[in-house]
C-alpha cells in the first residue's frame, strides 16, 4: 500500500518533491527573496490530469520540511488522497497551476525579490532588455534581440491574475521563444522551467538583469 498516495503517485516521487521544494525554498530564503512567509514553489507531479506539489500556505519558507507541501489540481485546489500535508495549499496555487498548464513547466517559483517589484514600478508596461549576455540563460540572444519581461497588475484573485498572465504570454510566444518569467506589480515575480533547478536559474538570471536595468536607468534616460 502506498502510504501517501493510494491512487498512484509513488511515495518516492512525493518524498523527492517535498525534499526538493524545501531545499529550494531554504535557498531562496537565504537570498532574502522569501522574507517572512512570502513566496511559494511548485513542481509538476503528473501532466494529465495535471497535479502539482505546492508549498503549504503561511509557513516560514526558510524552515520547510519535506512534508510541508500539498497536492493540487489544475485549478490549484487540494486533491484529497494524493499525498501531501494537512496545510492549506499556497494562496497562489491557482496561478502556479495556470502557469504549469499554459507553459508546460515542470516547476514554478514565486519570490518577492525586491528588484522585481522596483522594475515593475518603473516599467509597468514591461521591462525591455537587450544586449546582455545573461539573456542566453533565458533562451534568448545576447545581441540584437529585444526581450520584454511582462508585468501584470497584482490581484488576490488567482483567476484574474492567471487571465492577465495568459493574455500577455500567449501572443508574446506566438512565434518567438518564451520569456519564462512574469512580474507582478507591487508583489514579486514568477519564474518557471523544466524542473526546479531550471526555474531557479531563470529567477536568478532575471533578478540580475532587473538589477542591472534599475541601476543603469539614470544613464539610459540621460
Ligand atoms: C507576506 S506573504 C504574502 C502572501 O499573500 C503571498 O503573496 C505569498 O507569496 C505567500 O503566500 P502563501 O499562501 O504562503 O504561499
Ligand atoms: Zn507572493
Automatic annotation (TrEMBL):
Superkingdom to which the source organism belongs: Bacteria
Pathway in which this enzyme or protein is active: Amino-acid biosynthesis; L-methionine biosynthesis via salvage pathway; L-methionine from S-methyl-5-thio-alpha-D-ribose 1-phosphate: step 2/6
UniProt keyword terms in alphabetical order: Amino-acid biosynthesis, Lyase, Metal-binding, Methionine biosynthesis, Zinc
UniProt remark on cofactor binding: Binds 1 zinc ion per subunit.
Known catalytic reactions: 5-(methylsulfanyl)-D-ribulose 1-phosphate = 5-methylsulfanyl-2,3-dioxopentyl phosphate + H2O
EC number: 4.2.1.109
EC category name: lyase
Cofactor(s) annotated in UniProt: Zn(2+)
Binding residue positions for Zn(2+): 110, 112
Limits of the Class II aldolase/adducin N-terminal domain: 19-214
Keyword Zinc assigned: yes
GO molecular function: methylthioribulose 1-phosphate dehydratase activity
Entry annotated with the keyword Amino-acid biosynthesis: yes
Function: Catalyzes the dehydration of methylthioribulose-1-phosphate (MTRu-1-P) into 2,3-diketo-5-methylthiopentyl-1-phosphate (DK-MTP-1-P).
NCBIfam families the record matches: salvage_mtnB
Family to which this protein belongs: Belongs to the aldolase class II family. MtnB subfamily.
Cited HAMAP family: Salvage_MtnB
Name of the protein: Methylthioribulose-1-phosphate dehydratase
Taxonomic source organism: Conyzicola nivalis
Amino acid at each position: 500500500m502506498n502510504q501517501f498516495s493510494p491512487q498512484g503517485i509513488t511515495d518516492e516521487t512525493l518524498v523527492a518533491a517535498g525534499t526538493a521544494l524545501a531545499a529550494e525554498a531554504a535557498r531562496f530564503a537565504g537570498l532574502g527573496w522569501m522574507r517572512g512567509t512570502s513566496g511559494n514553489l511548485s513542481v509538476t507531479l503528473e501532466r494529465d490530469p495535471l497535479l502539482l506539489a505546492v508549498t503549504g500556505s503561511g509557513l516560514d519558507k526558510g524552515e520547510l520540511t519535506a512534508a510541508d507541501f500539498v497536492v493540487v489540481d489544475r485549478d490549484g485546489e487540494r486533491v484529497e488522497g494524493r499525498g501531501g500535508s494537512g496545510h492549506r495549499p499556497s494562496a497562489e496555487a491557482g496561478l502556479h497551476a495556470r502557469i504549469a498548464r499554459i507553459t508546460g513547466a515542470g516547476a514554478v517559483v514565486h519570490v518577492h525579490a525586491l528588484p522585481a517589484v522596483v522594475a515593475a514600478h518603473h516599467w509597468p508596461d514591461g521591462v525591455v532588455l537587450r544586449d546582455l549576455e545573461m539573456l542566453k540563460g533565458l533562451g534568448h540572444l545576447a545581441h540584437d534581440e529585444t526581450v520584454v519581461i511582462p508585468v501584470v497588475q497584482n490581484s488576490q484573485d488567482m483567476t484574474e491574475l492567471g487571465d492577465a498572465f495568459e493574455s500577455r504570454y500567449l501572443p508574446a510566444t506566438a512565434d518567438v521563444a518564451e520569456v519564462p518569467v512574469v512580474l507582478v506589480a507591487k508583489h514579486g515575480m514568477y519564474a518557471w522551467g523544466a524542473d526546479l533547478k531550471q526555474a531557479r536559474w531563470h529567477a536568478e538570471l532575471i533578478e540580475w538583469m532587473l538589477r542591472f536595468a534599475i541601476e543603469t536607468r539614470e544613464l539610459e534616460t540621460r
